[in-house]
Design brief:
Elements lengths: L3 E6 L5 H8 L2 H6 E6 L1 H9 L5 E5 L11 E10 L6 E5 L8 E3 L6 H12 L6 E3 L13 E6 L2 H5 L5 E4 H9 L3 E8 L1 H4 L2 H13 L13 H11 L1 E3 L2 H16 L1
Parallel strand pairs: 1-2, 1-3, 6-7, 6-8
Antiparallel strand pairs: 3-10, 4-10, 4-11, 5-8, 5-9
Helix pairs in contact: 1-8, 4-6
Amino acid sequence: MASIKLALVSYINTIPFIDGIKNDKLLNSEVELYIDFPANCAKAIKNGSVDGGLLPVGALDELPKDYQIISDFCIGSDGPVETVVLLSQEPIHKLHTIYLDYQSRTSVRLVQVLAQNYWKQQFKYLPTAIGFENNLPEGCGMVLIGDRVFEKEQYYPYRYDLSDAWKKYQNLPFVFAVWVGNEKVKEIESSLNKAFRSGIDNIEHSYNNLLTIDKERFINYLTKSISYSFTQEKKEAIKLFKSLLVTR
């Protein structure tokens, strides 16, 4: 029976992590995966129902005391990320309201930082529920994240990549989620790093026909849009982002 439970987001960009764990005989027997969207993963880590996992950086201030950031890997980007966007029928300066994706806290906080400091725009922000992306009122934009972007972006003439905007604003990469864990997870950190490295190095073998994008875009997305290495520059970007949340 698996003795360690890890939470991962249910998006294409975590496939290398999932495959890395499943293809490692030791980890596959020790680790149980809880897969959900980012906000629910954050809740699971916060309430201790999992031993660790991918935590959105927007929830780092709620990290339990017995958990810490681990691993040489993260979910990040250095420029356009493709799957964290602001979509609208009109240009950003004509919008008055932004609908915030219920699946993510980090992305909705990022759009508010960018609106205040980069775009210099003031918006009304509204929460959302399942299906919100199918009915966007006039004069409104929406933050949409994850694989749904691949399906919905074609219907909106205005598309603002939030990671790209952050890069232009601060000339830094952006980190959406980091690996965290309690002592049980810390003990297998080196094994996780090895498994993650293997998954990332074998991305082309992870594609399956059930995905919402074709193989070429899948590979390009995971090798060019997603930046997995948790570098010192990314750690600096997290600190800066958190400081901007305080001053916002």
